Amino acid sequence: MLVTGGGSMSKRPGWRRAAALLCLTLGSACAHYRVQAPGAAGVGATEPQGEVLWSLGWGLVQERPRVDNCEDQALAEVTQSTNVGFALISVLTLGLAMPQRVEWRCAKAQPTPGDLGVR
Amino acid sequence: MPPVIHESSQKRWQNWHQSYTQKLELLVDVWNANASQSTVPGYVDTTQGLQGLIQRALTGGLEIRGLGGGWSFTKAPATSGILVNTRPLNYLFPAPRTHPAYPRRREDLLFAQCGVSVAELNHFLKKIGKSLPTSGASNGQTIAGAIGTGTHGSSLEFGAMQDFVVGLHLVVSPDRHVWLERASAPVIHDEIPQNLGARLVRDDALFNAALVGLGGFGLVHGVLMEVEDLYYLQAYRRRMPLTEELWRAFDQLDFSGIALPGPPGVKPYHFQAVINPNDLDRGVYVTVMYKHAQRPEGSNPPSPGSKLTQGDSALEIVGVLTDLVSELTIPVLSRLMDRFYEEYDNISGTHGELFTDTTTRGKAWGSAVGVPLGRVRETVELALAVNRAFPFPGLFGLRYALPSRATLAFTSHAPMTCVLDIDGAASTRTKTYSRRVWQGISQAAIPHTFHWGKVHELDGPAVRGLYGTARVDAWRGARKALLTTPELLAAFSNDYLRGLDLA
Lengths: 119, 503
Hints:
The complex is a heterodimer. The N terminus of chain A is likely disordered. In chain A, helix 1 crosses helix 2. Chain A is α+β, with helices and mostly antiparallel strands. In chain A, strand 3 and strand 4 form a beta hairpin. Chain A has a domain of about 80 residues. The longest helix of chain A is centred in the first third of the chain and has 13 residues. The two termini of chain B are about 35 Å apart. By secondary structure, chain B is an alpha+beta fold. In chain B, helix 5 crosses helix 13. Chain B is globular, with a radius of gyration of 22 Å. In chain B, the strands form five sheets. An eight-stranded antiparallel β-sheet of chain B has the order 18-15-17-16-20-21-19-22. Chain B has two domains: about 250 residues, Uridine Diphospho-n-acetylenolpyruvylglucosamine Reductase, domain 3 (2-Layer Sandwich); about 230 residues, FAD-linked oxidases, C-terminal domain (Vanillyl-alcohol Oxidase, Chain A, domain 3), CATH 3.40.462. Classes of the chains: A alpha+beta, B alpha+beta. The interface between A and B is large, with 36 and 53 residues.
């Protein structure tokens, strides 16, 4: 079975892609907030995958991330990041447009132990 | 059913400690088709899936590499080609049937798929009344990644993690995979590799070389390990003055002159020190742990939710602190140490309960030099002298391991290796400081080795100089014996191996 993950912004309108790129370029300094499941559950199965999400119209329109890589497993960790560029956009638009970057790692499956056979 | 192979759109990959970013052609996550139940058919199907990825690499003229936790500071797991994330592969098969000559119980064996993390192993083993003999201070590494770079703890009665491994299942080509174990100590019943479709190879030299394989021996799909009955560690941490007696303990593991915390007259199972070179007058932190079959009466369980835990060493401290503050200066480090790295008494837990860190990240930078007992004081005094001339905001850790049989294990010194960790915030100053210490160790002709997964600046001649031509040739020869064509050797190479002249 082969599942191909889409690019995080491949279907976004051009202006938003450009704005996000500008923000990432401007925003070398980021603030992160990470929520991680405690203990073994916090050891993720995947590398971080993320998207830049936009809240538009003071929250009237809020994008949701497309989590398509977790194979029916839960999330082990979610990180939300902002930076100078994102903050500038939020301030300059008086909160009309508020970008955030969200990244996640999928949790591992918890398989029952098996028997190698040959009893 | 074939495994689920999820292709990421990422063209860059960053290691866990964020010390470098690698451009790559393709990153794939591999999931067992039935992720909820460990089965032999599922395992066999995943083997075939991994072989398909090797074929794809060969067809495209790409390198391929298995990725574990990505905790290495070095580029050991990095590739410009296909990076195979093995972390979702976490089947477990306890108590496989054994070879007639195997002297221990089959219940002492556990076969784990490559992506099982140390945290998962601890969790599962506790449920069945078993325990790992040792592990690193952190537990987010996968079993294959941990052994592949020689991850170690600080048990005075055991070596590094690869030293409890007694069998390896390696996927080495699109049409060949092998079950590898020592001819001198056969472990698995012959029919099990047959059931997996693997060719059984019993060869001490090949096995010892592949143990610390640096990702260059194919894709490690499964690891057979020897585990112990569940035990408890009774732990203490004290800040102690750096007296002559404590120096002797560090240098020779001679505890006769000092009063270690804990039961008097008992040799610790675990012994480690953390030294803040800029705050020596207030003493150094000594952590000791004693092994018990049952939880000692009157002891306290570890407190949940602490930022730093009982088993944490210098790197975990720096990782946590650099997560808290972006600029780690010498005064800030000392203050934060006082706040978070506390003394404690009589705390007990299983191995997995005391070595719990899964979250260390931060902008940490870590290196580790292995030296033999008897040269420890000289090495640490040298590092302290360099710090007096060129202070750096970081910590030393001292940890110990018995010699390993793995061909390129860095914990190879007899009678025991002391590992001097130099861990600090990732900065030019820390790097310059460490480089000066390494030069000093070399100029003082102290026999030494470097942790493969922590920062070092070795090249081919240096590797041959430190490990000896015979060991390097044996390792390279074993690699050629398992990867039988120039194309396979090239596919399982990377810049890291080429830089060490090990490709």
